[in-house]
C-alpha cells in the first residue's frame, strides 16, 4: 500500500501530541516546582522535555516527503519560492514571539524554537527536492561525524583546548562572534548557529522515515523497518554518547541518533495501532492539535501573557492556582504540573473550534 495519496493519521496525531507536550513543558504552573523529567537537562543527559523539539523536527521531515513527493519532478522554481516564503514567515512569527510584549529590538534574541523550525524546514525541503534517500543518508552521516570531529578536535579559541562545557565550547565561541542580539543564557544559546546543522540532520532522519512510508512495501514490513531503525539508532546514540555526550543544548550527534530513534519507535507504534489496526480512540486530541500545530504554539505564547503574566490582585493566575492546590495539601510539583495541563486544555478550546470549522492556518 502506498501512502503518497492517503492521509497518515498516526503522523497527524504524533505532530499534535508533540505540540501539546511543547506547551505543557514550556508553561509549568511554577518554574520553581517542576518534576525533573519535565525540565530540560541542565547540560548532558536526556529528559522527557529534551525529546519534544527533536521529535517535532523529525515529524517535519516526514511531512516534507508526504507533501512534496508528487511535486518533486514539477516546477522547482515555484516550489523553492513557496519553501523560502514559508520559512521566512515561520521565522518572522518566531521573532514576533521573542519581542513580545515590549518589542525592544535592542534586547532582541534572534534565535528560538520557531527560528530553528524555519531553518530545518528550509534545509530539509531543498535537500529533498534535489537528492535521493541514499544521498540524504550520506549527508546525515557526514553532518553527524563532521560535527562530532569539530567539537572534539577543534580547541576553543582563547582557551587553547577542546571544551564541551557551557559557554566555553566552540559552538558558544562561534555564536559570540557571529550571532547578533541577545543569547538565551547570556554567553551561549541552545539554538546556536553551528547546532543548526545537526538539527537539520534530525529533520533528514524524518525524511528517511517518510521515504519508507511512501514505498509499496506492506504496512507490517514498514512497521518492522521503522521499529528496527528506531532501536538501532537509539542504541548507537547511547554508545556514541559515552564519548560524545547526549546533549540537547549542543544538539550533539549522539543526541540526534537517540531522539530520532525514539521518534521512529513512536511513529512505528502509532502507525501500527492507528493506520494498520484502525484503533483511533485517543488520537483525536493529537489530530486536532496537529491540524494547526504552529498556530497553537504561537497561541500558547499569546495566552500566556494573561494566564502567567497578568496580576489578579497581588499574584498572577498561575500563582493563585498553584498556591491554592498546595494549600489543599498537594505537592508543589504536582500542582505546577496540573496547572500546565490546565493551560494545555485552555489552548485546546480555540484549536478545537478551528478544527470544527475546518479552518487550517498554514504559515
UniProtKB/TrEMBL annotation:
InterPro entries xrefs: HGSNAT_cat (IPR012429)
Keyword set includes Transferase: yes
Domain Heparan-alpha-glucosaminide N-acetyltransferase catalytic as annotated: residue spans: 7-224
Record keywords, A-Z: Acyltransferase, Membrane, Transferase, Transmembrane, Transmembrane helix
Record field: transmembrane: 12-31, 51-68, 88-106, 112-130, 137-154, 193-213, 225-244, 250-273, 285-308, 334-355
KW Nucleotide-binding (keyword) present: no
Molecular function per GO: acyltransferase activity
PANTHER family: LD22376P
Full protein name: Putative acyltransferase
Native organism: Runella defluvii
Lineage, broadest ranks: Bacteria, Pseudomonadati, Bacteroidota, Cytophagia, Cytophagales
Amino acid at each position: 500500500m502506498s501512502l503518497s495519496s492517503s492521509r497518515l493519521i498516526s503522523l497527524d496525531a504524533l505532530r499534535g501530541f508533540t505540540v501539546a507536550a511543547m506547551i505543557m513543558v514550556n508553561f509549568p504552573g511554577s518554574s520553581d516546582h517542576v518534576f525533573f523529567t519535565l525540565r530540560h537537562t541542565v547540560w548532558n543527559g536526556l529528559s522527557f522535555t529534551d525529546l519534544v523539539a527533536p521529535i517535532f523536527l523529525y515529524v517535519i521531515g516526514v511531512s516534507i516527503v508526504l507533501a512534496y513527493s508528487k511535486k518533486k519532478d514539477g516546477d522547482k522554481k515555484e516550489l523553492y519560492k513557496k519553501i523560502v516564503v514559508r520559512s521566512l514567515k515561520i521565522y518572522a512569527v518566531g521573532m514576533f514571539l521573542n519581542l513580545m510584549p515590549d518589542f525592544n529590538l535592542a534586547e532582541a534574541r534572534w534565535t528560538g524554537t520557531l527560528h530553528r523550525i524555519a531553518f530545518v524546514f528550509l534545509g530539509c525541503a531543498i535537500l529533498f527536492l534535489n537528492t535521493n534517500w541514499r544521498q540524504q543518508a550520506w549527508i546525515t552521516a557526514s553532518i553527524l561525524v563532521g560535527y562530532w570531529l569539530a567539537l572534539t578536535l577543534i580547541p576553543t579559541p582563547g582557551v587553547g583546548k577542546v571544551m564541551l562545557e557551557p559557554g566555553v565550547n566552540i559552538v558558544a565561541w562561534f555564536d559570540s562572534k557571529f550571532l547578533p542580539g541577545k543569547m538565551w543564557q547570556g554567553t551561549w544559546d541552545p539554538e546556536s548557529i553551528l547546532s543548526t546543522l545537526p538539527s537539520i540532520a534530525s529533520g533528514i532522519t524524518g525524511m528517511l522515515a517518510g521515504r519508507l512510508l511512501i514505498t509499496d512495501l506492506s504496512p507490517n514490513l514498514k512497521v518492522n523497518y521503522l521499529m528496527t531503525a528506531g532501536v538501532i539508532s537509539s542504541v548507537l546514540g547511547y554508545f556514541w554518547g559515552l564519548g560524545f555526550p547526549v546533549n540537547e543544548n549542543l544538539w550533539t550527534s549522539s543526541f540526534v541518533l537517540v531522539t530520532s530513534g525514539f521518534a521512529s519507535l513512536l511513529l512505528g507504534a502509532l502507525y501500527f495501532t492507528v493506520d494498520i489496526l484502525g484503533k483511533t480512540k485517543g488520537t483525536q486530541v493529537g489530530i486536532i492539535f496537529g491540524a494547526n500545530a504552529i498556530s497553537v504554539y504561537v497561541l500558547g505564547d499569546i495566552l500566556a501573557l494573561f494566564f502567567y503574566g497578568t496580576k489578579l490582585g497581588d499574584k498572577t493566575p498561575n500563582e493563585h492556582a498553584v498556591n491554592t492546590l498546595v494549600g489543599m495539601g498537594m505537592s508543589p510539583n504536582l500542582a505546577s504540573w496540573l496547572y500546565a495541563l490546565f493551560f494545555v486544555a485552555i489552548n485546546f478550546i480555540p484549536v478545537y473550534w478551528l478544527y470544527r470549522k475546518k479552518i487550517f492556518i498554514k504559515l
